[in-house]
Amino acid sequence: xxxxLDTVFAALADPTRRAILNMLLEDDMAVTDVAEPFxxxxxxxxxxxxxxxxxxxxxxxxxxxxxxxxxxxxxxxxASVWMQGFGQxxxxxxxxxxxxxxxxxxxxx
Length: 109
Hints:
This protein is of the alpha+beta class. The chain is built from 6 helices and 3 strands; from the N terminus they run ααβααββαα.
């Protein structure tokens, strides 16, 4: 069985799936509405939705004859916690680093 974190990151690796998640930030959407902006078949979109569902990033529910997709933001929690572990490093200030190098080069001359 795959690690849930691996499954989430694998799902997020595809730009189409990230775009779908972005769309679902606004509200639940019918599968046909999700497919509309993409130049691919409904079957291809369904495969992407299946991967997102398997990863837990979205859920799908049938309402009448329409299948709806809903974002499941809690699924990103483990990935977010894992990524926050890298927040312990200070961001590099490239402008300050450049000034430092210029100063060092000037003092060597």
